[in-house]
Each structure stands twice: as C-alpha cells, then as structure tokens.
C-alpha cells in the first residue's frame, strides 16, 4: 500500500488528512533521508498496520538499508524510552529521576545514520507518544546539531499528519 492508496481508504470526512498526506512527499525543508525516515518511524509509532505499511512502502525506495533499519530502531527505542521517561517526568516521587534507568539504549549512540537524523525521528516519535521529557531532550540535541526550529516543526508536523491518518483510517472502517 502506498500513500495514495492510504488516502483513498480514508472517508470523505478526512479530506484535510488526505491533503496533508499528499504534501509530505513534496516537502523540501528536510533531506530525503530525514523525510522518509520520519515516515517510517512515525508510521510504526502510529501502531496502525495499514499506515505503517503505507509509510514503509513509500519510504523504502528513498532510503538505504541502514537508514530504514535506523528509522525502525528510532520507533522501537522511543517506544521504550517514552514510557519510562514519561513516568519519571509525571511521577510526583522525584526519587525516580535519580535512579538509573537500567535500559539498554546503545542504538542511540550508534544508530547507523547521521546522529541528527536519528534524533529527529526520535523527537517525532516522542511527540506521538507524548513524552515531554524526551521531546525536550531530543529538541536540545537537534538545536546543538544545527537544526532549525522550522525543520523540527516539520518533523512534528509529519508525526501529527501520520498519527491523524491512523485515526481517520480507524474511523473509516
């Protein structure tokens, strides 16, 4: 399934979502690797098989095998980290913030792609998963890596569009 077939599966109520999905591929504010890696990571984070499959099908011709693997890794590792660090952030017991996480996260240090690209994908997944602590951490790293506010906002916009496609698809079924 491609983005076009995903758009056609959405109900008439989701016209804005279809238009937003259509605009992602033509966005030129990010590199191809950044853009298509976002599609993969956010598609996986949407937890909707149809959306995930469409995003991976759209992105695969534009990504190296290493970048495709790294985008999948960003979604996976953030699935773990977002739960843990959202708990640490939201818990009124400050002791959890002083305790070691004891979670393996080696892929963050060696993602197999440019660090900024991996961080951008991780930020977008963190936005989908609602972890403010992770959003702040990844955004700070991206700014140090030279990413502009516009580039970061584009990544979160992609996350919002992809997540809304999953919701609209479910509403269409």
Automatic annotation (TrEMBL):
Q: Which UniProt keywords apply?
A: Antioxidant, Disulfide bond, Oxidoreductase, Peroxidase, Redox-active center
Q: Which InterPro entries match?
A: AhpD (IPR004674), AhpD-like (IPR029032), AhpD_core (IPR004675), CMD-like (IPR003779)
Name the reaction it catalyses: N(6)-[(R)-dihydrolipoyl]-L-lysyl-[lipoyl-carrier protein] + a hydroperoxide = N(6)-[(R)-lipoyl]-L-lysyl-[lipoyl-carrier protein] + an alcohol + H2O
Q: What is its EC number?
A: 1.11.1.28
Which positions are catalytic residues? 131, 134
Record keyword Oxidoreductase present:
yes
Query: Which cystines does this chain contain?
Result: 131-134
Q: What class of enzyme is it?
A: oxidoreductase
The Carboxymuconolactone decarboxylase-like domain covers which part of the protein?
Answer: 97-168
Oxidoreductase found in the keyword field: yes
Q: What biological-process terms (Gene Ontology) are attached?
A: cell redox homeostasis; response to oxidative stress
| An example Gene Ontology molecular-function term | disulfide oxidoreductase activity
Supply the PANTHER family for this chain.
ALKYL HYDROPEROXIDE REDUCTASE AHPD
What is the stated purpose of this protein? Antioxidant protein with alkyl hydroperoxidase activity. Required for the reduction of the AhpC active site cysteine residues and for the regeneration of the AhpC enzyme activity.
Q: Which NCBIfam families does UniProt cross-reference here?
A: ahpD (TIGR00777), ahpD_dom (TIGR00778)
Family under the similarity heading: Belongs to the AhpD family.
- What HAMAP family has UniProt attached to this entry? AhpD
The protein's name? Alkyl hydroperoxide reductase AhpD
The organism of origin for this protein: Pseudovibrio exalbescens
